[in-house]
Design goal:
The complex is a heterodimer of chains A (130) and B (135).
Chain A: E1 2-7, H1 16-29, E2 33-39, H2 60-71, E3 75-78, H3 79-85, H4 90-95, E4 107-110, H5 113-121, E5 124-128
Parallel strand pairs in A: 1-2, 1-5, 2-3, 3-4
Helix pairs in contact in A: 1-2
Chain B: E1 6-11, H1 20-31, E2 37-42, H2 66-69, E3 78-82, H3 83-88, E4 100-103, E5 109-112, E6 114-117, H4 119-127
Parallel strand pairs in B: 1-2, 2-3, 3-6
Antiparallel strand pairs in B: 4-5
The chains are: A alpha/beta (130), B alpha/beta (135).
């Protein structure tokens, strides 16, 4: 089955990012295809590489980056939600005159159309949020 | 991408305590460009999003409720409000914005967008959808 996933909460504050990650791993193991993971609301905070969780805790952003690298996951951060919360790639930083970017490996910033498109092209859209 | 799917955006939260309502509306407006079968549901505290007479100056936030009145121009014609959620909060249909759309099949007659449905009816409506983003 083709599955699109939406993550609506930030890491550590809320379990939805962990649950989405576990769900995606299990779905891939079962042979399903993940068409896209779309990060919205505070979910965009999953995409900053500047988080430094304690060493005995999971690093959620790093988990996403590694999963993306292993399975070619398309991790998309909503541009409008990201701008509000200071999640920037190099292009966005330059465009808005900011001194640096913070997007993590495997993530890309794009528009809400990517969410609608994923909904249209997938068999299911699975939403993780509050 | 010629396939048309049924999208139901489910709004569950009050308009200003969190950003969900505002950012949900942003998804609906962008999604309107994709020519899908779109409907909106308002349940739980989400019914407060449609309350009329919202004034936000004292909380320093933008009152985005006028945008709901523009949904008809975005071809959003089906807005379901759950009766039980209204009643549980002491609200009546008179407390809500009057949302309309122009029916191009009937000489652009102005029609009500909001349909008041029971919890059981909304359950059936959800069952008929392809994509149900919830906020």
């Amino acid at each position: 089955m083709k599955l699109a996933v939406m993550v609506n909460e930030g890491p550590y504050q809320h379990q939805s990012a962990d649950s989405a990650y576990q769900f995606i791993k299990a779905a891939i193991d079962k042979g399903h295809e993940i068409t896209r993971v779309f990060f919205y609301h505070d979910g965009v905070n999953n995409g900053t590489r500047y988080g430094i969780p304690p060493q005995d805790d999971r690093n959620i952003t790093q988990q996403w980056s590694e999963l993306s690298k292993k399975h070619g996951l398309d991790l998309v951060v909503c541009v409008a939600a990201a701008q509000r919360r200071g999640i920037l790639d190099a292009d966005e930083a330059r465009r808005h005159g900011k001194s640096g970017d913070n997007i993590a490996d495997g993530f890309r910033i794009s528009g809400l159309g990517q969410l609608i498109e994923a909904g249209i092209q997938s068999d299911r859209l699975v939403v993780f949020g509050d | 991408m010629s396939e048309i799917k049924k999208f139901l955006y489910v709004n569950r939260k009050a308009p200003y305590g969190t950003v969900y309502a505002l950012e949900s509306l942003e998804v609906v407006l962008i999604g309107a460009a994709f020519d899908q079968d779109v409907s909106l549901a308002f349940i739980d505290d989400g019914v407060f999003q449609l309350a009329k007479g919202q004034k936000t100056t004292d909380i320093g936030m933008k009152n985005f409720s006028p945008t709901y009145s523009a949904l008809g121009d975005y071809e959003v014609k089906k807005i379901y409000v759950e009766k039980e959620s209204l009643e549980e909060r002491g609200l009546t249909p008179d407390n809500l914005l009057h949302l309309t759309y122009e029916d191009e099949d009937e000489d652009y007659a102005e029609k009500d967008s909001i349909q008041f449905v029971s919890r059981a009816e909304l359950s059936d409506i959800m069952d008929q959808q392809d994509v149900v983003p919830s906020f």
